[in-house]
Amino acid sequence: MLAYIVKRVLRSILSVFIIICIVFVLLRMLPVEGYFGGRYDLLTEEQRQMELYRMGLLDPVPVQLFNFLRQLVTEFDLGLSSRIRVNVPVTTVIADRVPISVQFGLISVAIGMPLGMALGVMMSRKKGGVWDKAGTGYVAILNAVPAPVYMVLIQLYGTMLLGAPLTFRFDSPMSRVLPIITMCLPIIAINAFWMRRYMVDEINRDYIKLAQIKNVPTTTIFFRHVFRNAVVPMTNLIPLSILGTIWGQIIIERLYSIPGMGGLLIDAILARDNALVQALVIMFSAIGIFGLLLGDLLMAFVDPRIRLHKKGAAR
Amino acid sequence: MKRFLKLITAAVIFTLAFALFTGCARDEEPPAPGADTNVSAPGQPPAPGQPDAPGQPDAPPAVVDMTGPHGIRFAQEQVLHFVYPTEMTNLNPFNSADSLANSEGNQPGSESLLRRDNFGLLSPGLAHSWEVSPDGMTWRFFIREGLQWVDHQMNPVGELTADCFVAVMEWVLDPEIMSVNHHQFHPRIVNAYELWTGAITDPNLVGFRAIDTHTLEIQLTSPIPYFLEVAGFQPAYRPFLEQHGMFYGTSNYTTLYIGPFVLTEFIPGHMRVWERNPFYWDAENVHIERAVGLFNAEVNVLGPEMFRRGESDWAQITSDIVDLWLNDPEVSHLVTPGIPDHSFQWYFMFNFDPQFGPEFEPDNWRLAVNNEAFRQAIFWGIDSHRALLTLDPFNANLYLSNTITPRGFAIADGVDFVDMAPLSRFHQYPNWLHYPARALQFRDQARAELTAQGATFPIIMKLSYNPNTAGWPLEVQVLRQQLIDLLGADFINPVIQTGPSVDFLTAVRRQGQFALMKGNNGSGVAPGDPSAWTFAFSRSEIDDSWIHWSRSGSAETQRIHDEYRELIDHARTLTVQNRERWQAFNNAEYHLLNHAIVRPFYTIGSGSFVFRYNPFDGFGGTGPMVGWVGRRMLDHPLTAEQWTLLHADWEAERQTRIANTPAIPVGNW
Hints:
Chain A is an all-alpha fold. Chain A has 13 helices and no strands. In chain B, strand 2 and strand 3 form a beta hairpin. The chains are: A mainly alpha, B alpha+beta.
C-alpha cells in the first residue's frame, strides 16, 4: 500500500509539473502587454524591449521555464503582480486572501456537510415521505433559481432580520452569519442529493432484503448496514471540499465585500496580470489533483474492502 | 461505522478549529511601522508619536456652528462612510495615472503644488505662491515651510522641501522604474524626455530643480498658457523613497502622507480607513475626522440600500431603480441630480477608415461617411435628449451639450468659450441639435449624391457599444430606432454590434471597427483650456485612433481635415492666454461641427444621487471619494430642495470667483 501511495503522489506531482509547463507556455503565447500593466501605451518600443529583457522574457521559452521552476523551488518566488497589486509579490497577494476564504469555507463545510448528509439520510428513510419531498424541493429550488438572485435576497432581507450590516466587517461577528449560511445552502443540497442516492442504492440491494426477511430490526439495517455502505463514496468528496475552500466563493465574496480568493483568478485574467494568473492556475490545479488523491486514500481508510494496489485501486 | 463517525467528528472539530485559527490571522497588525517608516532626515530624528515644533499638529477643529445654509445641519460625529467599486492597485500617488481608481483613491493622502477649490478653480496647495518669467518659459513655486511628512500611524517623519518634488521627478523619469506618470514631465519640461529615454543620465540637467530649500524652479520647452492647470507635481520624502524604490506605495505603510488624510488601515478588496492628518497645512479646514471606505464590486445593487441603512453617505440611484425611489415618500425628496463634470465629454464619432468585415459593407460606408450631406443628415437627425433619457430620465437637460467643449469648462473675462462666435451659432438650435426638417433635407440630398456615386441603400451603419458601460446598451437601441424612424429604413440600416467587454477601445475604436459610435476624451491633457478637446481630432496619420480622419481616402474630407489642422496649428502657436488664442480654438471647433465631423452629445455626471453631505463645499470634487477638504457631514440626508438652493448659490459664487481671478504675477528675476 505504501508503494502505491508513493506512486500516486509522484504521479500527482508529475501532473502538476505538466500543468505548470502547459500554463507557462500558453501564457508566453499571449500578447506581452500584460506584463506592463497600464504602462504599455506610454512606453517607447525600445523601453518595452528593455523591460522584457530585464524580466527575462526575451529568453527562449525553455530557458524561461527552467528559470521559473528554479525560482519556484529554491525561493518560492512566483514573480510580482503587475496589475492587481502593482509590484507586490504574487505569493503575498494570494497569502493575504487565502485565510479569509478558508475560514469561511471550512466553517461552511463543517456545518453544511453533516447537515446535508443528515438530510439525505432522512430523505431516504421513507421514499416519497415529507422529508423526501421537502428535501427534493429544496434541492430543486436551489438548482433552479440563479445563485445571485437568492444570494442577494438573503443578503437584503437576512441582514434586515438579523440587524447585521449589509457587508462583512472584521469587527462584527454578526456580519459573518449570512455569508456562511449562504455558503452552506449549496453544500447541504449537494450532500443531501448524493447521500440520498447512495442510501437508496444500498436499500435496494439483495443483502438488505435478506436482512429484512430475517427480521433484523429496521433501525439496525438502516444505520449499521445501509448508512455504513452508503457513506463510503461520500468520503471521497471530503478532502476536495476542504481544500477547495481555498478557491473562495466568487459571488458571495463579491456581495459581502469579503477580501478572499473568490474572483481573483477572473480579475487577474481580465487585468492581464500574467504572473498572478500563472500562480493561481498552478495552485488551483495542484489543489484539485491532491484533493482527489486524498479522497482515494480516505476511502481506503474508511472501507477496509478497498485495497489500494494496481488492479484493485479505487481510481 | 464507528471508525467513520470518529473520522467525521474529528474532521468537523479540525475544520472549525482551523477556520477560527485562520480567521484570527487577519487581526494581526501590519508589519511594525518602525521597520519601514522611521526614516528621518539626517540629523533630525523625530521621536515617533511626538510631533516636532515645525509640524505641531493643530487641535482637532470643533464644529461650533452646527447649522449651514438653507437649513442643513451638520452631524456631531464627522465620519464619512463610502462604498467604492474598484480597488486601488497601488498607493503611490505619483504612479497612479493609469486608472481613475488609483488617481482618485490616492488623493486624500497626497497634495500637489496647487489644489482645486470647491468651485473647481486652482488655488494654492503645497506651494503658497508662484511666479512666471516674462517670456513664460520659467516658473518658480514657493513651497510652504514647516510641513511634516507623516507615516500611517501619524508619526512625523521629516520636513517637506523643494527637493521632495525633485525626488519624484527623478523617480518618475527613471527608465528602470517606468512610472505611468512620466507624461506629466515631458515634453513640457526641458530635458525630461531625454532623462526618461536614457539619452542623458544626470537629473540635474532637467529643468526641474530646487534652487533653495523651499523654491522649486521649472523650465519649460515652450510657453504653456495653461501651465498651472497641469502643474500637479507631487512630492515624496527622498530618504523614504530611496529606501523603497519601486516598492514605494505597495501598502499603506510603504507610503508617507502630506495631504489632508492618512491611510491608517488598508485591506485590499475590503476596506480603507483614512484619518484626518493633524499636520496638514490646512488642517483647520478639514472637518471630517475619519473616512471609512468599503470595497464592493456590486455597489450599484447594494449602494442605495446601504445609504438607506446609514452604512454609506452617498449612493447613485441608477435609472432602473430611480422610479422606485421617487415613488417612495420616505426617500423621494432626497433624490438629487448630479453635477456636470466638465472634465469629460461624450460625442458621436464617424469612422472615416472602416476596418470592419464585409457583412457591414465597409466600402459602401466609406462612400457615405465621406459625403457631407450624409453626415449632416445623421448630425441633425440624432435625438440626443431621447438617447440620454435611457441613462437619466429626469435631468438629461443638465448634461446635454451642443458643442464638444462643454459649457462652463473654459471661461475668460466672464465669457464662456462656447458663447463666443462663431461656435455660439450652434447654441441657437433647440432640442440639442435635433432638427428633423434639416436632417430630412440633407437625407434627400445625400441619397441623390450617393446614388450617383454608386452607393447602395440602405446604408449599413455599424453601431458599436461597450456592454460594460452603464446605460450604453439601452442608449444604442434607442438611437438605432430613432434614426430609422426619422430617416427611414430604406435610407439607413443601423446594425448594433456588442463590443468586447475587455479592451473595448483597443478592439473597436483604435481598430476602426465601428461606423458610428459614442466616444470621449478627458480634458487631462489641458484642463481648463480649449485645446483639451482638440487632440482626439488632430492626430497624425500614425496615431489617428479616434475617428481615423486622416485616412479617409476622400479628397474632399482630406481638405476639411487639412483646414482643421491649419486652424489648430495656428491656435497652438498662440502661447499667451488671451481672447485671440481662444478665438482661434473657437474657429477650429466651429469648423469641426460645421462639417459634421463629430456630433456633440453630453457631459458626464448625469444620474440621480443621494448625499449625506453638502456636495458643493468639498475641495476637488463632489463624489464620495474626493473633495474631503472643506466638506462637512450632515445629520440628515440632503433634500432635493436644499440641493437646488445650494447649487444656485454655488453657481453664482463660482461666476464671481472666475470674474475675480487674479493675474499670475511675473517674476522679476
